[in-house]
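S.,

Sequence below, as promised.
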Amino acid sequence: MIDHLVNNSKSALISAIEIHNKPLFAYRYELVSILLINSWELLFKAYLLKNHPEIKVIKDDGTTKPFEECLESVKSRIGIQFFATAENISRIYEFRCNCIHFYQEDIDVLLYSLASKSVEFYSDFILKYFGIDLADETNLILLPIGFRKPISPLIYLSNKASTDNTSPAITEFIKSIITSTNVLIDNNIDDSILVEYKLSLINENRISNADIKAAISKENTNSSIQIATVLPQKFKFKRR
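The prediction came back faster than expected:
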């Protein structure tokens, strides 16, 4: 049974990736979120059956443990090192259950970032607990090619937060992402539920090619972004 669950879980994940990478697909993130949650649910049940037989995955009436209960069971057994993964999955599950409320606005930037990170978390999880290297099995390289350059989800969130006409559903979704981020910060977890964009400081004269250049100026009145506070392993930015 465990092998069957794992194989079906992998199939659901690969299907999610294949659908996501189709050039023209109108129902993309709705199906991707359904398949990702299904993939995680099957993998969670396989993990619990394999490592925690004391937990009743299959009930007496023949039904199985619901997704949210599986997620909490795995989270409670693995502990803090699973927190980032759990928060990522929870946000995807939130979208899956409420996607009809998100139709008014385009939040593909957030959904791509959540889904891509979830695939990364899945790959780490199945390697650690089942010894399966998906990168070796599938030979997939997730590098999106399109007609527009990718945008940072942090820039997207910042722009949405400052817009008055953002719908209530999107506002609540953004708040839940921020809440998840704060959960990780409060637990001193240096990871993100979104795809990360790294920032490094280097002498401007040494940069030969870059999509974005940011110069440091002593005159903060002329800057569009100001570093307000520098904390260990994270920055707080103030937009002007």
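Residues 79 and 180 are 16 Å apart (CA to CA).

Coffee later?
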